[in-house]
């Protein structure tokens, strides 16, 4: 089984912007409502398109499967079948690991949401193990890993703007 181990955090301030190595615009939508056992997502990231199936559970460890699909198919799915959509710019920041035994650095993915989710900036880090240590940048705010409201599937169906714009 494919497993994703991910932690999510609110981003505070703009200091992170100076550390970005690259960025890509993303458009994604969901083919399922929130009540199911899995979320099924279509994503266009730059010129790449994927279909993603992820266990609909809250937490740092979830089953995840992702497959490349033709860009034209992704556009058609987004335009015709998705029940919720969102747009964002994903920024990438590479950080050294704090564990001297680890063999590679970690990459922070900073999602700067657009449209109805504008004003929300979330950092995610994928880890090789739940207990793997990592450097905590100064711009990292409170952890959101266990708060369903900040999952992309929820944001696509219940945009941040509808919350009254308060990320706390």
TrEMBL record:
CDD domains: CYTH-like_CthTTM-like_1 (cd07891). PROSITE patterns: CYTH. SUPFAM superfamilies: CYTH-like phosphatases (SSF55154). InterPro entries: CYTH-like_dom_sf, CYTH_domain, NeuTTM/CthTTM-like. Residues 2-157 form the CYTH domain. Pfam families: CYTH (PF01928). This is CYTH domain-containing protein. It comes from Sinimarinibacterium thermocellulolyticum.
